[in-house]
Amino acid sequence: MTTTANSEQATERARVHYNSENARNLYEIAIGSDTLNLGLYEDDPDRPIAEGMAKTTEWMAKQVQNLNPDFRVLDLGSGYGPAARHLAGKYGCHVTCLNISEEQNQENERRNREQGIDNLIDIVFGNFKEIPFDDASFDLVWSQDALFHTDGQDRVLEEAYRVLKPGGQLLFMDILQADDCPDGALKDSLGRVNILHERIGSFHSYTSKAKSLGFQTINVIDKSDQLLVHYTKLRDSVIAHYDELSQKCTPEFLESSKNGLCQWVESAQKGLFTWGLFHFRRP
Known about the structure:
Blueprint: H1 4-19, H2 21-30, H3 49-63, E1 72-76, H4 82-91, E2 94-99, H5 102-114, E3 121-125, E4 138-144, H6 153-163, E5 164-177, H7 187-191, H8 203-213, E6 216-222, H9 224-240, H10 242-246, H11 251-269, E7 273-281
Parallel strand pairs: 1-2, 1-4, 2-3, 4-5
Antiparallel strand pairs: 5-7, 6-7
């Protein structure tokens, strides 16, 4: 069983990583985007990483039922806020970003002001295992590839259920482990990205927990083949930009990032990592 100390350490590691200049420079140079989620490349394998990431957000938004300006949305692990800006800018809904990185939150706020939609987006520092909002506050809880950072995915789903209004929707994508992944098989790969827990969510664990909470399942979609495409592209981009990155990142961080991506690609090739969309409704 994971201790409270380990849980707090995992949260702090994520915060320190996403606050770091190393991480920001890596994303800007290797990806060229403020978006950190995985991308979709099914209809265009040559699509650049940044465009693939934006495609995922657009595709996810289209899955939401009856999305309209009256919606109040909670974005868990919002990063620099690209999903919030898409939802607010295209659909006119109000979005609250909950995120653990102060640096990302500041940049999120700056970009919202720059685009003139800061009136539709609130930014709150916090941990999505302890969502700081009242019961039945949101029409949609949204998350993109953030929940695997926590050792308490069950707790996050419990909190999402609590803050959703009756009829509200939970829509998220996450990096998963295969349902038949052996214990400890991903320890080294996860450790490369500062994740201390040895197991992450799976299709089975998320659907089972959602059912036990009383969620109704709208859809579950397996996009695992795209995870391998995405991380292969990201690995290749880091290698291609290695000299440029070496001017902006510390040698230890850059080498660790490159080796970690190589390890993630290898684990994905073995079928140990999966990726998918989960769409539930609170009755």
